[in-house]
Design a protein that fits this description.
homodimer, 8-stranded mixed sheet, 8-stranded parallel sheet, 15 helices
Chain lengths: 418, 418
């Protein structure tokens, strides 16, 4: 008895399924289960069989067979933290930082997020879409098939709305699936500097309610000089009432208790966490909040201290990785680059980094049920890598080793392949 | 009166010529001269006109006009330090290093260079060529049009010869121009461990003379546990008599006086230099030796101390950048990645990093006379970048922003363009 399939992908030297119970992965690991000489069968965009080639070939009759050319197959990467829809560039700040100015110095001088806010407020939805599309192309070229995307450069109702609309348009038009987050609470806009409480009121009474239909998640930048723990609690509590799921930028520059707040509120993820201490780690582990670590950002901002990733793994915190793609503090679309940084800076093993960029990254955006691993019933989002073995992937950096990307069973990169 | 040209490349938003006197550039700089709305004309693979579009268009009649689409044009990168021809991979070492083993620990345990030596000795020239070709493709895709390539994994006459032959074949077959370096003095092979003096004799009496026709440069790994200053002087003095130009791996892990030796012998470049002190810096500046810095290697080996690049610039040492592409201590083909690391780790400005990767890199391999800048008479090796301005380039990392690569006036990347 063989079942029908649209596609049989075969001649896979090694396939890493990352299969397991439907929950984020916890704990340290040195290796990953892998299947040699594997195959995958797809029907209607979902995996109908995966395993040793002989077993898969015997179990399906496929309309079409494609060779993976002896490559290594992993699930498509999920990038669970990006600031995708922006316009403009901030190369002048990069030089200032090299000359010794801090992120906070640049922000206080009117640069940083606020510089991008001026550009985004002046942009149409179409301009936001056009600027973001090549970023999604680069994501795909580096193996990312799903990404989270935040607003947060508008900092006023209509500009935030245009950012979220741009995310919706891009999700429809581009092969990379997007999950939208309302991050209107990203900064205090200039016009509210003298009335912080008024801005928090505007967020909870106007912006969050009005945009609830455009974003699945709500996020707050909880940090010294931005939103304190009390303000963050107020905003996220209201967001939860409005039906948003919760995320939190926490403890990036200073430990303010952000990790504990994320745990208290039942956030899906807490992100950054470079300065989180033992109490925050224990709280995340206890509540099962996914820690989304952003090693590209500490690399780019030249921080010497990095997130306590090994302590998190030892404590049982589920760890995920993301690019933090944004124009000021981490300008990269490449998840493989983030894997290399995670190994070199955070001392993750290649196995831990791959878990963090696939199944745990999917859980960090509430998509662990249908992607992040190669299992029957999940989306056929998978990447053929031109590497000798899976553990080689983070060892070769700064380039793309992607051979082919399949999204829902279709070749989406490189374009023009059968 | 207009002169004939094969190609006119126009619609260049910004062109950075890096033109100047025929010598390596010295000293700090925050900016670079650039020409807005520029054009370049090419005949027989060389630049016949470059400058403001109106001037260039008035001065030539071109057989063919190509639009740069509003991109930014720089000279093709020159990568002056690579270990290109190897086979095999060493991902297991990467994990060991994360777990705390040092480069020296791994070398003493039979890993490191010696692991690749076992693989290279078993490989044919054709296998070396096949393994290296995709590396050259990735170089081209990241804007490198000329590279240096070293032997040094054979560590016996015939295996070193096959590596140098592979470099010659690749130079003929691939658009990236290669300059060959004999680095037989890369390590003490296992069979000579009990007789170091015998290995030095073999180098100076047999391997260097026999392979003199296959390599323009000779290089020595002058470092604790490898070749001391006296051994290095002996080998390089002999190499100079045989007609080689000189390079030196110096002061990478320990300051052994390598920089001073490079200056004493009139080496074209001294490479690594992470531990070089004031005396070494003064010697390099005085002798005009190009310092080839390899920030990817200290990144990859997780060293906290980096080469004293700013002190070198202040002292007037000509500074160049290279990938150090190799399977163990720096696995990347991307010069843009190296530029980002040079800014973040070495505190080079984007302007200094671009000088170091173009004109000074060309001087580091004796090619400053015909490439590394966009000037009349030089090779038409140039790259159109998809960036808003030249200083943006090192701020966006881990991906390729190359739109088109021209080598000797022909489009070589992406393939299939007119």
């Amino acid at each position: 008895m063989s079942a029908p399939a649209d596609l049989l992908l075969t001649d896979i030297a090694e396939l890493v399924p990352l299969a397991g119970p439907p929950a984020p992965w916890r704990g340290p690991r040195r290796t990953l289960e892998c299947i040699s000489d594997a195959a995958v069968a797809v029907r209607d965009g979902r995996i109908v069989a995966v395993g040793p080639r002989a077993d898969v070939e015997a179990s399906v009759r496929a309309a079409r067979t494609v060779s993976a050319g002896g490559g290594v197959v992993l699930p498509g990467f999920v990038d669970p933290h990006t600031h995708l829809p922006w316009v403009g560039s901030r190369e002048a700040e990069f030089l200032l930082r090299l000359e010794g100015k801090s992120y906070a110095d640049i922000a206080r001088a009117g640069g940083g997020i606020r510089a991008t806010t001026r550009a985004v407020r002046a942009a149409t939805t179409a301009q936001l879409v056009a600027a973001a599309r090549p970023r999604l192309d680069r994501m795909l070229a580096h193996g990312t098939t799903t990404a989270e995307a935040k607003s947060g450069y508008g900092l006023e109702l209509e500009a935030e709305r245009r950012q979220l609309e741009a995310i919706r348009v891009l999700d429809e038009q581009h092969p990379v699936d997007l999950v939208a987050t309302n991050l209107a609470a990203h900064e205090i806009p200039d016009e509210w500097r003298q009335d912080r409480a008024g801005w928090v009121e505007t967020l909870v009474e106007t912006i969050l309610p009005q945009l609830a239909g455009l974003a699945e998640f709500c996020d707050v930048f909880c940090e010294e000089h931005v939103f304190g723990v009390e303000e963050s609690r107020r905003i996220l509590t209201r967001a939860r009432e409005l039906g948003y799921r919760l995320k939190l930028h926490a403890d990036e520059l200073v430990a303010t208790g952000g990790a504990e707040l994320a745990a208290e509120l039942g956030a899906v993820s807490a992100d950054h966490l470079a300065k989180t201490g033992p109490a925050g780690i224990a709280a995340l582990a206890e509540a099962g909040v996914v820690a989304v670590l952003l090693p590209g950002t500490s690399f780019y901002l030249r921080h010497r201290e990095h997130a306590p990733a090994r302590a998190m793994l030892e404590a049982g915190v589920p760890v995920a990785l993301a690019t933090d793609l944004n124009p000021g503090s981490c300008l990269t679309e490449s998840m493989p680059m983030i894997l290399t940084l995670a190994c070199l800076q955070l001392e993750l093993t290649p196995a831990e980094a791959i878990v963090a960029a696939t199944i745990n990254a999917a859980h960090a955006i509430g998509r662990g049920h249908d992607r992040g691993s190669l299992e029957v019933g999940k989306l056929a989002d998978l990447v053929v890598w031109d590497v000798p073995t899976w553990s080689y992937l983070p060892t070769h950096f700064g380039v793309s080793l992607v051979r082919t990307v399949f999204k829902r069973g279709e070749v989406v990169y490189p374009r023009g392949l059968p």
